Amino acid sequence: MWRASVLTLNQSAALLGLLIVPLLGSAAMADEPRLSISGYDPVAYFTDGKPVQGKVDLEYLWHRSRWRFASSEHRDLFSKDPGHYAPQYDGYCAIGAAADAAAHKDTVDPNAWAIVDGKLYLVHNIYYLALWREQAQEYIRRADADWQAVADLPEPVIVGPPCAASPPTTSVALKDGGHWLVIVGQVARDEAGNVVGKGDMRTQIEQVGKNVDACLKAGGATVNDIIFTVNHVTAPTEFDKYVDLLPRYFGPPSPKSTTVPMQQSSNPDLLLQVDAFAAIK
């Protein structure tokens, strides 16, 4: 049995196997254990049924990572059986670890979680948790098979400004070689955080395109390096009217690119959210 905290989304099964995405903070120094799951308490998912921020003075070192806890009781529970409470794949994205040839380590959102058969899983953001839920057992099977190779890959590197802090844009190393720039959660906000083009799909596509371009440049890529995009839109029919704009902002046409309905948004003025995946050196 599993339970999860998740937005309700009716997403396309065509996305399965394409999405790779979330870490847990900046890339750790080689001689310094990284802070896992952004300092959230792994035990709280089981005992409280929700993510709870851990305390700086309640840490435990395990698997080359620092784990924080909300109470000394939780720390004691973890220290006695870390394999039970720690998230799978050392707290990296459960979708990224299951991406076959493109399997990789990536960041997670502590709020995008699920417990399946008594094990904790985290993914890059809340939208992808809904996708992961649809075929959780298949994702788990693939990630379990690949994890030994993925575990030795370099840490994902957060690109930082001008890209949004959450969800972060990351540079990730792939299991079978190469690197991807993962740009997710791009919406029609300007540099000040204001929504651009309320009620205007074309204007919002253009603003999202500008935001994607800024992240591409920050990560050492261009629009021509985009392999595919995932376009979450509130009105797919309206979005399709502006298909002529997509190559300009979201790269060459790709059979892997997908448009899916976005039934819920954190802000009703936002008409779309775009995730772009680009190959980089």
Shape: globular
Give the CA-CA distance, first to last residue.
41 Å
Structural category is alpha+beta
Q: Approximately what portion of the residues adopt beta-strand conformation?
A: 15-25%
**Count of DSSP H/I helices:** 8
Largest sheet: 6 strands, mixed
Radius of gyration: 19 Å
When the domains are counted, the total is 2
Q: Mean of residue pLDDT?
A: 87
Poorly predicted regions: 1-29
Q: SSE order, as H and E?
A: EEHEEHHEEHHEEEHEHHEE
Strand order of the largest sheet: 7-8-9-12-10-11
Oligomeric state, counting identical vs distinct chains? single chain
Give the helix proportion (percent range). 10-25%
The total strand number stands at 12
Q: Which SSEs are present, and which pair or pack?
A:
Elements: E1 2-5, E2 34-35, H1 44-47, E3 55-62, E4 65-69, H2 72-80, H3 82-85, E5 113-116, E6 119-122, H4 126-134, H5 136-150, E7 157-158, E8 170-173, E9 179-186, H6 201-218, E10 226-233, H7 236-240, H8 246-250, E11 258-261, E12 272-280
Parallel strand pairs: 2-4, 10-11
Antiparallel strand pairs: 1-5, 3-4, 5-6, 7-8, 8-9, 9-12, 10-12
Question: Any overview of this molecule?
Answer:
- With 281 residues, the protein is an alpha+beta fold.
- The protein has two domains: 2-150, no CATH class; 178-280, RutC-like (60s Ribosomal Protein L30, Chain: A).
- It has eight helices and twelve strands.
- The chain has a six-stranded mixed β-sheet. Strands 1-5-6 form a three-stranded antiparallel β-sheet, with helices on one face. A three-stranded mixed β-sheet has the order 2-4-3.
- A hairpin with a 5-residue loop joins strand 8 and strand 9 (179-186).
- The longest helix has 18 residues, at 201-218.
- The model is unreliable at 1-29 (pLDDT under 50).
